[in-house]
Design a protein that fits this description.
Elements (H helix, E strand, L loop, with lengths): L4 H18 L3 E9 L2 E8 L6 E9 L13 H18 L6 E9 L7 E5 L4
Parallel strand pairs: 3-4
Antiparallel strand pairs: 1-2, 2-3, 4-5
Amino acid sequence: MKLDKKELAKRGEDLAAKILIDNGYQILERNYRFSHGEIDIIAIDPKNGFTVFVEVKARQNLEFGEPEYSITKNKQKQIRKLAELYLYDKGITEIDCRFDVFAILFEDLNNPVVNHYENAF
C-alpha cells in the first residue's frame, strides 16, 4: 500500500514521537509553525534536560536515496532559524539544546527501519 506524502509524514512523526515518549522524553510541541516553516517535534531529553528540536524524514522506498540525506545544509539552516524563533516566541534566553533527526524507511509499513541521529547537526 502506497501512502500519500502527507500520510507518510504523519506516520513518521507519530512513530518518532512514540519512540521519544517510550524513552522518557517529554514532548513540548508537535508541528510547531512559525512563518513558512515547521519543526516536527520539540522535546526535552530526560538524560540531560536538553531541549531537542527533531526533524523527521520518512520515505517508502529508496528511489530518491536514504531519508536522512534529504536534510540539506539549507534545511538545517532553516530548522536552526525556526528553533531561534521558537525560543524568542517562548521568551527563553538560556537553554541547552540540540538538533536530532529521525530517518524512517517504511518499505514494510508494519516493520519500518528507524535511525535516530542525536545531535545530527
